[in-house]
Amino acid sequence: MAVLNQRTPTPKLLPRHGRISHKPLLPPRLFHCSATAPPKNRRLNSKTLILNPVTSRPPVINDPSLKSTWTHRAWVTGGCSTVLISLAKSISASADSHIWVQPILAGLFGYVMADLGSGIYHWGIDNYGGAETPVFGAQIDAFQGHHKWPWTITRRQFANNLHALAKVVTFIVLPINLLTNDPVLLGFVGMCSGCIMFSQQFHAWAHMTKSRLPPMVVKLQDGGVLVSRLQHAEHHRAPYNNNYCIVSGVWNEVLDGLSFFEALEMVIYFKFGVRPRSWTEPNSDWTEDPETTTFVS
Amino acid sequence: MASISLHTNHTLPSLLHSQTPKPTFSQKISLLSRSSQSQFHGLKLSNSTLLSFPSSSSVKSSILAKVTEGAIPPAFTLRDQDGKTVSLSKFKGKPTVVYFYPADESPGCTKQACAFRDSYEKFKKAGAEVVGISGDNSASHKAFAQKYKLPYTLLSDEGNKVRKEWGVPSDLFGALPGRQTYVLDKNGVCRLIYNNQFQPEKHIDETLKFLKTV
């Protein structure tokens, strides 16, 4: 594994990213790498309702918290099954009804909306709440840790990376599969939920170097079908308040150009008095760790 | 896109001028729409539209209280970042740029404040003073000014009383305090009004451009 100076001027996405372990870890070996451009201070909101420092610790070689468990695999299996059933039912119903255009368009719409949904969710958990927030606390903490050690996601095993979203998809898509046979709705739901579930994998790929990616993934990134490495690297650079979408990234330019998230933050501030994390100076919990650990393969 | 309102000797009298005769009902609706419009990336958003029927009191306040080009704005006395009281009359005798912004430390307001700071020498060269006004208290202004080394006065309009008196329009259907800048000449007459919520640096460009022409 190449060792890079953390002050590398161009964002080199080295392979090691992931959500951060919450378990106590062995002291890390010190290597230098940078998954993104040199870290700048990430602003931390001092007036959020819940103030939580990042509780995660930097990952180490063979970190068990990055490995998939059978529970993770079960949830991913469940999520994938519900998505596949949704798509299969859509195809079957389309064949029976001899309509193809609408379900296909619905599927495309689902893919596009998944990107928007990923951005809004990502913005929300990046800026509000903390580890103690009900339901979302673990993800909020994980995403804060991700900003500190962005490369860890690439070392997280597949099911480990996807299981949280797979769980949500299972609970939401299964009832829809049982309740409807509409090919258009099922096409939308199947594509949207599938893209959302796999957004963490797309996210991981966006943190990897080109040389470590399958050629097809590189082509999809370069073609704008999946979020590109360059575009996502912008999210990990100051002012850390843009490029939130992580499916295809197609909404990033639109939302950032319209100051969409800035407007939302202002409305939330004036309605509820809560400032987002991106408005204030970061503390060390948020800034990318300059002494990050790399994994030697 | 932003909205700019200029007062020159050649402009037709505005319907919003305080000396116009009492408007008819249809004019009231049109007046209110124009008076409360603001710009949001080229999409004009009003907190009242041509189809809305505001109460008579809000119509009255819009007509009588709004600062327009050619008018002398209502006087005010507010506290600055050091807690001292400052009156608008203090700035008479020199051109004054009065900019209303939503909140200290928000991204747009920080960009705007720093842009005014960075161009402050140009404003001084034009003989103008810069005053920022928001609803934050003096302590917030002090911290904001110190953090970004702002060389000009920030005034605390707690309760947004002056904002309402001057008729600064809101954005996003009233959800956001508007971002509007007024340039007053040395006699205290409003000569330029510029509104732009999400392109804050443009306030500096437009006001400097205007000051160069007077």
Q: What are the defining features of this structure?
A:
heterodimer; A: 297 residues; mainly alpha; 9 helices; 50% helix; globular; disordered N terminus; B: 214 residues; Glutaredoxin; 8-stranded mixed beta sheet; two-stranded antiparallel sheet; 7 helices; 21% strand
Give a structural overview.
The complex is a heterodimer of chains A (297) and B (214). Chain A has nine helices and no strands. With 297 residues, chain A is mostly helical. Chain A is globular, with a radius of gyration of 19 Å. Residues 1-52 and 293-297 of chain A have low confidence and may be disordered. Chain B has a domain at 66-211: Glutaredoxin, CATH 3.40.30.10. Chain B has helices at residues 25-35, 56-65, 107-118, 120-125, 138-148, 161-166, 201-213; strands at 3-6, 37-40, 43-46, 77-80, 85-87, 96-100, 129-134, 153-156, 180-184, 190-195. In chain B, the strands form two sheets. Chain B has an eight-stranded mixed beta sheet. In chain B, α3 (107-118) runs parallel beside α7 (201-213). Chain B starts with a strand and ends with a helix. The A-B interface holds A 239, 241, 257-259, 262-263, 265-267, 269-271, 275, 278-280 and B 40-41, 102-103, 105-108, 172, 175-177, 198. Chain A: Keywords: Membrane, Transmembrane, Transmembrane helix. Chain A: Its main location: membrane. Chain A: This is Lipid desaturase domain-containing protein. Chain A: Residues 111-279 form the Lipid desaturase domain. Chain A: It is found in: Membrane.
